[in-house]
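Q: Here's a chain of 167 amino acids. Please give me its 3D structure as tokens.
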Amino acid sequence: MAFMTAADSITDHPWYLAAQLVQPALIRLVDQLRQQLTESAWKSSYETVEVWPDNLPDNSENTETEPQILYWLYLTPKEATPDTRPIAINLWELCYQICFESYTPVLDRLTIQDFQLGEVAVDRSLFDDHGEVDWNCLDTKAAQVVKAMLDSYNSLDLKNNQHSGDP
């Protein structure tokens, strides 16, 4: 008879699995963006933004409060007019699409999504038989997510600046 230990149960917990995927997913996402944007009709730039929680007192000395770190990708057609606005894409949303099953991103979301347990399911196909991140599967899914995102923006009427952050 085998007993489940505390260590066994935590490694199967959805948030533990998600935490194992986030950094590798961001790495593969940025690499796939670099690869696929080089041969695309898009110019890109990146921005890191700190978003502090609302309602902090001005004299707050709460050292536990930390900002959310957002990573933005801005896409502009290479043949854009000077008044064409770039498309802003929240890279965390693309990471979530990689890490979770059936996640529909909101690419212009202004914050980091706060999920409740049960709202999302970790894509377990991104782990090997030993519970380690399968980098090949992760890279394949990141490539698919980036390609789908770029394909959706390629179909927009950008000459008339008819777009929002969501394709």
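Q: Can you summarize the key feature?
A: Residues 1-10, 160-164 have pLDDT under 50 and may be disordered.
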